[in-house]
């Protein structure tokens, strides 16, 4: 058995921030989950629908691994990423790092992991690996999935090699800090402004505040879009609240990030953004509740009401991001 010493196997709400937390704490940088999410400019919105999908998807964060790239670049950390189509090389990439005492981040499809209760393909899942033996791999996943967990090496290889939406080619990564620890406090405002800029000027209408407005128009028509409303609508609501989002489609995490920042930075625009995201988080939970109720009772009026709330959310989040975009550098 090979185990990296000194690993704090702390599962958080979201998979990518959980893995980042493991890798960074091992390097001596211990940041809260909201701070990791915020410094990585992780908040976003996407309304995603396609004929091949059973039901539309409401996403609340940037695409998989972008958060990691944003965070490491912003803090001046060294991110070493490896991908390969070879199962043998994929294992060597991981085991070689662990053998020298480095935990490794992995992007994979959670469907194949032994400990996952929900057998749904999701190729953007991220875990930290800190050990292995002849048969098993030792991982850190979210608190919801058990924190410190194990899966067979066979299952891990299948999860890493899966192809499909959001998957990567056996992606593994390590993070190392420079000799001088980064002054992450100095990078808060640039992270907030970058996130706000992307949210306010999305390249397509499915993203950012425009995407929320689009969802407001389309959600009331979902009974004609989903095959089985009693099955599909509660599943959409569950994904919004429970699927590693930290609640409220990641808005609770961003609210807490802004609240933590407000204790470090004296800026009225930051306080405005924090107040508005506190309001938005509560309303996103209301939207999820309405979608769930629409499925349970096949009540289309609940989706009409969800559309009204989403119109309000598009405005609230736009106003919040406009205030945050004007923060002093």
Key phrases:
single chain, 329 residues, Cathepsin B, Chain A, 12 helices, 9 strands
| Main sheet makeup | 7 strands, antiparallel
Structural class, please? alpha+beta
Listing every helix as H and every strand as E from the N terminus to the C terminus, the arrangement reads: EHHEEHEHEEEEHEHHHHHHH
| Residue share in β-strands | 5-15%
Low-pLDDT runs of 5+ residues are none
**Tally of structural domains:** 2
State the helicity in percent bands.
40-55%
Q: Distance N terminus to C terminus?
A: 49 Å
- Rg from alpha-carbon coordinates: 20 Å
Beta strands, count: 9
User: Residue-averaged pLDDT, rounded?
Assistant: 95
Compact overview of the structure:
The chain has 329 residues and is of the alpha+beta class. The protein is built from 12 helices and 9 strands.
Can you walk me through this structure?
The chain has 329 residues and is α+β, with helices and mostly antiparallel strands. The protein has 2 domains: 2-30 and 78-176, Cathepsin B, Chain A; 186-325, no CATH class. Helix content is 49%, strand content 14%. The protein is built from 12 helices and 9 strands. The chain has helices at residues 15-26, 33-39, 66-75, 87-99, 153-161, 188-200, 208-218, 222-225, 229-241, 251-262, 268-297, 300-325; strands at 2-3, 43-48, 57-61, 78-82, 104-108, 125-132, 136-140, 148-152, 172-176. Strands 1, 4, 5, 6, 7, 8 and 9 form a 7-stranded antiparallel sheet that branches. It has a two-stranded antiparallel ribbon with strand order 2-3. Strand 7 and strand 8 form a beta hairpin. The longest helix has 30 residues, at 268-297. The chain is globular. The relative contact order is 0.16. Pfam families: BtrH_N, DUF4872. Residues 155-324 form the DUF4872 domain. This is BtrH N-terminal domain-containing protein. Residues 14-142 form the Butirosin biosynthesis protein H N-terminal domain. InterPro entries: BtrH_N, DUF4872.
């Amino acid at each position: 058995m090979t185990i990296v010493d000194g690993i704090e196997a702390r599962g958080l709400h979201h998979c990518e921030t959980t893995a980042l937390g493991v890798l960074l704490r091992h390097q001596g940088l211990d940041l809260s989950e909201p701070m990791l999410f915020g410094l990585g400019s992780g908040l976003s919105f996407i309304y995603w629908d396609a004929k091949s999908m059973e039901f539309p998807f409401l996403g609340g964060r940037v695409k998989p691994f972008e958060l990691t790239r944003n965070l490491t670049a912003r803090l001046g950390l060294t991110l070493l990423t490896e991908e390969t189509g070879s199962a043998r090389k994929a294992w060597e990439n991981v085991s070689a790092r662990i053998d020298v005492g480095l935990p490794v981040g992995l992007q994979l499809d959670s469907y194949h992991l032994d400990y996952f209760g929900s057998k749904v393909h999701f190729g953007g899942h991220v875990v930290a690996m800190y050990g292995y033996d002849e048969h098993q791999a030792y991982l850190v996943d979210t608190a919801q999935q058990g924190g410190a967990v194990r899966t067979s090496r066979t299952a891990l290889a299948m999860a890493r090699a899966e192809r499909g939406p959001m998957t990567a080619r056996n992606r593994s990564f390590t993070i190392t800090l420079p000799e001088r620890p980064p002054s992450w406090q100095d990078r808060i405002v640039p992270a907030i402004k970058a996130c706000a800029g992307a949210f306010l000027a999305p390249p397509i209408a499915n993203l950012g505040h425009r995407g929320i407005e689009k969802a407001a128009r389309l959600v009331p028509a979902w009974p004609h879009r989903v095959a089985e409303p009693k099955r599909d609508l509660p599943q959409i609501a569950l994904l919004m609240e429970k699927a590693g989002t930290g609640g409220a489609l990641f808005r609770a995490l961003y609210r807490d990030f802004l609240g933590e920042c407000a204790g470090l930075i004296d800026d009225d625009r930051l306080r405005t953004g924090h107040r508005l995201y506190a309001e938005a988080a509560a309303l996103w939970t209301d939207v999820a509740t309405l979608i769930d109720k629409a499925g349970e009772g096949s009540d289309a009026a609940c989706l009409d009401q969800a559309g009204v709330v989403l119109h309000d959310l598009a405005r609230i989040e736009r106003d919040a991001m406009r205030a945050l975009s004007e923060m002093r550098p």
